[in-house]
Amino acid sequence: MKKNSTIILAALMLSVSLAGCKKYLDIVPQNVGTLDYAFRNRSEAEKYLFTCYNTLQQRSNMVNDPWFATGGELVLPQEYLGQTNLTAPGLQLVKGGVQNKDNPVLNYWDGSGSAPSYYDAIRRCNTFLENVDKPIDLQPFEKERWIAEAKFLKAYYHFFLAKMYGPIPIVRGNTPVTAPTGETRPQRDPVDSVFSYVVQLLDEAAEGLPIQIDNPDQELGRITRVIALALKAEVLVAQASPLFNGNPDYAGFKNKDGSPLFSSTPNNALWAKAALACKEAIDLAESVGLGLYTYIIPPNIPANLSDSLVKEMNFRAAITETWDKNKELVWALNGTFGWQQQMFPKLVSGAVVTRGQNTIACPFSVTDLFYTRNGVPIDEDNTWDYANRFTAATGDASRQHYIKQGYETIKNNFDREVRYYASFGFDGGIWFGNAVYTPAGSLLSIQGKGASSISGVSNAESGNVFGIWPKKLCNYLTVNNTTSYTASNYRLPLIRMADLYLLYAECLNEANGPSEDVYHYLDLVRARTGLKGIVESWTKYSNNPGKPLTKDGLRQIIHRERRIELCMEGKAGWDLRRWKEYLEVATRPIQGWTVSQTTTAGYYQLTTFYVPSLSIKDYLWPISANELLVNQNLVQNPYW
């Protein structure tokens, strides 16, 4: 870490850009660098608080988020075209061979490789906490809240670094400039100590935070007690998970003085502790009206939507709905999700698509996660023709709200669960939206076979060469036609209620095995889109009916439920790591359809674009070689 300065503060030169909140647009005056000025009154101190928020808000950029970058659910043009100027480099990480210790990609420790330094952010939080007593016009109730917000942000930045690097140096306070050199070169703290410190900060912060925002026009995006408790639940789940809880791969991981950085034995009691934190967060959230989203039909859309479309929108709009209408949203950033245009298909003849647009795709393997309409995996359903899933099939009237009637696609797209149709665009798939909402046979659809088809790829730099679109991340109110592209912007959730329900179910199962409570929270999430309960679905339709009745079997179901429900929300890259399932999943071939072909048989041949190259070292980020030279008390992460 860089030596800190309490005299000249680079943070004061930052422009704070938290869109949607006018007060966050204030800019600290140029060429002013003293703490006395920064905390001379309430107004200036508040500006400094917002600089503490500013680093967090940069997570709105998907391609620079490490969990999107490693989730393997989205692929970008340069990954298969060799183009480096179409998008930022972050999402290349999934294919391996890019990460290195000399110049790490997404280096949140130092602040390089398309990432800010989270240690700089922590220092700004410490500076705020150490000087917040100075403004004489700051009311006690405001000071209490601001201190709580700074403690939350400090906890969040520590936790984020721990997720990436494991054991990290805890920065409890800023080191004076006059401190001996040795004090500016800390060693790493054991990972359990880091988690305990983060939880301590969150507990302290929760007491001073409002339960919810009372003035949304001015304060949406600021931290609440519900958010603090939800993050605490995530922290304790991380600590209990196999990556950190007695991981034998890190048994010999020690500081230079020989002190161990990982516990050598798993502690199953951590799951019970995490379960209590999840339940506390859920109870508080529900007490203020949060819960699972159900679709709110706008005035300009026919009220008599089919049950099929309502179920789809119950799930799809839970991601893209505005804050004021989305009771499922626990926490989101102020910045809007800015990648819709790169994901949106051509749905009408003559739609103008520019270079880089319509290019972000999903690899085929991700679609295989999703269940049949019976709520079980496609290779377990005893009524679904898995062996012949790539044979041709034609859309009919009974499926007209998901597959275009009379259009030839393949059986793999038939009789899937609603979340499949809400999450992916595919050749022959209906696209509810793009200003066409009348379900009487006139809904738009993707038609992707060959370059001359409406959604086809005439130019690989402005087309989806995988043939699978991330529909879930495209707001159904966004319009792309022959004359213009008009985005209906939204804020991608960081935490939503379904996420908390599934975390709670996971903790309960890991602590004590299957129970009615575990089934209840899993079934609650599934019911929104019309799926039956776990036990009923497996009993009736699975060739492995006893799977939900054992701890190991239910664990597999829970992990899959999280990957389905939270697909493309930046969760998989982290979940797969903490479960220690990352290498198994992320090294599978990256495949898509042969989109240049015009026939069904030709189009539906899988093309392998590349096979990711990853190893055990990729579970944790490397510390940069330069940082190890600057601070010789640090040790590198294992296997790097």
Automatic annotation (TrEMBL):
Compartment list: Cell outer membrane
Please state the protein's primary subcellular location.
membrane
Listed A to Z, the keywords are:
Cell outer membrane, Membrane, Signal
**Membrane as UniProt keyword:** yes
InterPro entries attached to this UniProt entry: SusD-like_N, SusD_RagB_dom, TPR-like_helical_dom_sf
Query: Is Ribosomal protein there in the keyword field?
Result: no
Q: Name one Pfam family in it.
A: SusD-like_3
For the RagB/SusD domain, which residue ranges apply?
A: 350-640
Listed SUPFAM superfamilies: TPR-like
Q: Where is the SusD-like N-terminal domain?
A: 98-233
Q: Which residues form the signal peptide?
A: 1-19
Q: To which protein family does this belong?
A: Belongs to the SusD family.
Q: What is this protein called?
A: RagB/SusD family nutrient uptake outer membrane protein
